[in-house]
Design brief:
With 755 residues, the protein is an alpha+beta fold. Helices cover 58% and strands 9% of the residues. It has 33 helices and 9 strands. Strands 1, 2, 3, 4, 5, 6 and 7 form a 7-stranded mixed β-sheet that branches. Helix 14 packs across helix 28 and helix 28 (664-677) packs antiparallel against helix 31. The longest helix is centred in the middle third of the chain and has 31 residues, at 472-502. Its EC number is 1.3.8.7, 1.3.8.8.
Length: 755
């Protein structure tokens, strides 16, 4: 008998069992999905930086590199986003055929099943590059390689199912989609009313034990063209044909869309983006039990299967698209700001332009750093559920900010639509990424910290499992072990956080990382403060913390910043500590530290237990939030990264798909090159107070060759500044009856006057 267990721990154990909130099956399965990784180190309050720096950077194999610069480049050359969106309203047939022929739908499917067998990083790089050319094509390619039948079959399918379906998916013989979202349920899958009743029925002339399905799904990407539907539904066994349970839980199955009772709806138009998306229904659709992914033994395991697959997919597709969007905004907006003049000077010289430019450049650096680090984890076989949630949330949110900034700097150039507008489509698409795979509001307020606190904390999940143990004696023993380890950890964290906070991180651990060493110290400081505050919030609020969504969101923001900033430091190290890139890293750190300190201040001001709030303030933030964000000098230096051709600019915006045609991007790149080449001549003219290059040549201020450079640059800039216009009849059928619009309105006025 243990005195501590029976006389000290036991009352705490029974008290905790009484206050622990009940956990739904879907909540438990979501918590158990995937695994933890660097997020667990951050939650300890004492991250081991050598572990982070030892992670092998994500790299492409020779085969993957050849695909990226072969079929992917070829695909990008086939795409015209203006025509896709406004003329064809779809990818043209030859593009669909090319995507299938080159196995874009089978990137993640192993070679033994006819797929390409690419790594998560290769998948990410392909999506990223296509995204910089056409969002419609990118979404079309990424969905079959993300959450869908292919991923689920590879992880959970029977060998017979894999042999039957994966080769067809890899070859594009079947186009997949996945039906999860119901009109009644939205993000709350537990509320879906789609059902599968176990019964006997006829299937292809045979009487079998199977499922009679009824469902209504919407927002299903590739749904309108799908031939193989992955379906999530609730399974029931009212006649106990497979067991004693009646309600079996969420299940996933494969539904060939040609089966009787399947109805494919008309297309949605999501934010004027024309990737295939729409609703579908099933009315008394009968399938055999072996159409359940994984077979009969996977009945009721669908939610856990989905969450496990999502733990990987959320870390690849949308973060790749978002990183591409931020890099695209950095490259185009930097070039446009450099060539566009107002009041006789380049607008890039205005501090009001430098601030959003720096924000775009810093965001591009940060998002791609986080994308690469997450892909490195996935390459090693991890499925980090919390980190995937962080990536989806912050990649799409920060892309939104970057694109808004880009639109502001471009002004009317990005507002007037047409083939020469290279930003408008991206701007319209932003809400789509933010909404899908779980709305960002839900992810920020409930998932990042709510799931992270339980999964990534060193002891909390052990304690919860012990409290939920049906054998109370066994549960008490397990709780006793975990609880006292937790207590020791909390005291160590308290003294660590106190010392590091009061010394401003002076003695916090950090690797020898040159000019970045101080940043590691500050992250060590903030990590210990985060671990302490999280423990105190969990101790004082318990299960009520789940309902304190604003507090949970702030904790999630701190955890997210710790991860993203870790990724930026890892990128800096992996790329050889490039001196020219330091302004981007410094901008990321200053911005992130400001967010972290502000969130701490908000948490401490709003903890319901005011004594704990005051105590924590004394320990970790006695002087309040002191970081004010990037300095003006830092903003200036970061903005300069995208304003001139350089290796730093290329590292910030690598491998974007710029097609050499006469479109908007090609014109912009040409003008940027010519303006920067003619910069010296332009400075000589300004110094001589001359505006006309011809006069400068005549007076000997510049050479004839310099004058020709200036003339070429001027013409190129004029082409970039141009915006599209359209004949009235090209935009509206109203005008097709008459070629003279003025006559049309005159006749209309006369008709009204007469009436």
């Amino acid at each position: 008998m243990s005195f501590r267990r029976d006389y000290i721990t036991k009352p705490i154990f029974y008290w905790a069992r009484g206050v622990l909130p009940t956990m739904s099956d879907t909540e438990r399965e979501a918590l158990e999905a995937g695994d933890v990784w660097w997020d667990a180190d951050l939650f300890t309050g004492n991250p081991d930086w050598s572990k982070l720096l030892a992670i092998a950077p994500a790299k492409l194999t020779d085969e993957e590199h050849a695909f990226l610069h072969g079929p992917v480049d070829e695909l990008c050359n086939m795409l015209d986003e203006w025509k896709i969106n406004w003329e064809w309203r779809d990818l043209p047939p030859e593009v669909w055929a090319f995507i299938k022929a080159k196995k874009f739908f089978g990137m993640i499917i192993p070679k033994e099943f006819g797929g390409l067998g690419f790594s998560p990083y290769a998948h990410s790089e392909v999506v990223r590059k296509i995204s910089s050319r056409s969002l419609t094509a990118a979404v079309t390619v990424m969905v079959p390689n993300s959450l869908g039948p292919g991923e689920l079959l590879m992880r959970f399918g029977t060998r017979e199912q894999q042999d039957r379906w994966l080769p067809r998916l890899a070859a594009g013989q079947d186009i997949p989609c996945f039906g999860l979202t119901s009109p009644e349920a939205g993000s709350d899958a537990a509320s879906m009313i789609d059902t599968g009743i176990i019964c006997k029925g006829n299937f292809e002339g045979r009487e079998l034990l199977g499922l009679k399905l009824n469902w209504h799904k919407r927002y299903i990407t590739l749904g309108p063209v799908s031939t193989l539907l992955g379906l999530a539904f609730k399974a029931y066994d009212p006649d106990h044909l497979v067991g004693s349970e009646e309600e079996l839980g969420i299940t996933v199955a494969l539904i060939p869309t040609h089966l009787p009772g399947v109805s494919i709806g008309q297309r949605h138009l999501p934010a004027m983006q024309v990737f295939q998306n729409g609703p579908n229904w099933g009315r008394d659709v009968f399938i055999p039990l072996d159409y359940i992914i994984g077979g009969q033994e996977r009945l009721g395991q669908g939610w856990k299967m989905l969450m496990t697959a999502l733990a990987a997919g959320r870390g690849i597709s949308l973060p790749s698209l978002s990183a591409a969007g931020a890099a695209y905004a950095a490259r185009t907006t930097g070039a446009y700001a450099r060539i566009r003049e107002q009041f006789g000077i380049s607008i890039s010289k205005f501090e009001g332009i430098e601030e959003p430019l720096a924000r775009i450049a810093g965001t591009a650096y940060l998002l791609d750093a986080a994308r690469r680090l997450t892909c490195a984890a996935l390459n090693e076989g991890h499925h980090p559920a919390v980190i995937s949630g962080i990536m989806k949330l912050h990649a799409t949110e920060r892309m939104r900010i970057a694109i808004d900034d880009a639109m502001d700097i471009h002004g009317g150039k990005a507002v007037i639509d047409g083939p020469q507008n290279y930003l408008g489509g991206l701007y319209r698409s932003v809400p789509v990424g933010i909404t899908v795979e779980g709305a960002n509001i839900l992810t920020r307020n409930l998932i990042v910290f709510g799931q992270g606190a339980i999964r990534a904390h060193p002891y909390l999940l052990q304690e919860m499992n012990a409290l939920g143990e049906t054998d109370r004696d066994k549960g008490l023993t397990a709780f006793d072990t975990a609880f006292w380890k937790h207590v020791g950890h909390s005291f160590a964290t308290m003294f660590r956080a106190w010392g590091r906070s009061w010394s401003f991180g002076l003695f916090a651990p950090a690797p020898d990382a040159g000019e970045a060493t101080e940043f590691y110290r500050q992250l060590s400081r903030y990590s210990s403060a985060f671990a302490l505050c999280a423990d105190m919030a969990l101790l004082t609020l318990g299960g009520a913390l789940k309902r304190k969504e604003m507090l949970s969101a702030r904790f999630g923001d701190i955890l997210s910043e710790l991860y993203l900033l870790s990724a930026a430091l890892k990128r800096w190290q992996d790329e050889g500590r490039q001196k020219e890139d330091l302004p981007a890293l410094e901008w990321c750190m200053a911005s992130g530290f400001k967010t972290i300190e502000n969130r701490f201040a908000e948490i401490l001001a709003n903890l319901p237990n005011r004594f704990v709030g005051w105590m924590l303030k004394f320990l970790i933030q006695p002087f309040g939030a002191r970081v004010t964000g990037p300095s003006d000098r830092m903003v200036h230096l970061c903005a300069q990264l995208v304003l001139s051709p350089s290796a730093a600019r290329d590292r910030l915006t690598p491998d974007l798909a710029f097609v050499e045609d006469d479109g908007g991007i090609a014109r912009l790149e040409k003008a940027f090159r010519l303006v920067t080449e003619a910069d010296d001549a332009a400075k000589q003219l300004r110094a001589a107070r001359l505006n006309d290059w011809r006069e400068g040549v005549k007076k000997g201020v510049i050479t004839e060759a310099d004058g020709e450079k200036l003339a070429a640059a001027h013409d190129a800039v004029a082409k970039v500044i141009e915006v599209d216009d359209f004949a009235p009849e090209a935009l509206s059928p109203i005008y097709k009856k008459t070629a003279d619009v003025h006559q049309f309105f005159q006749e209309l006025g006369e008709q009204r006057a007469a009436s």
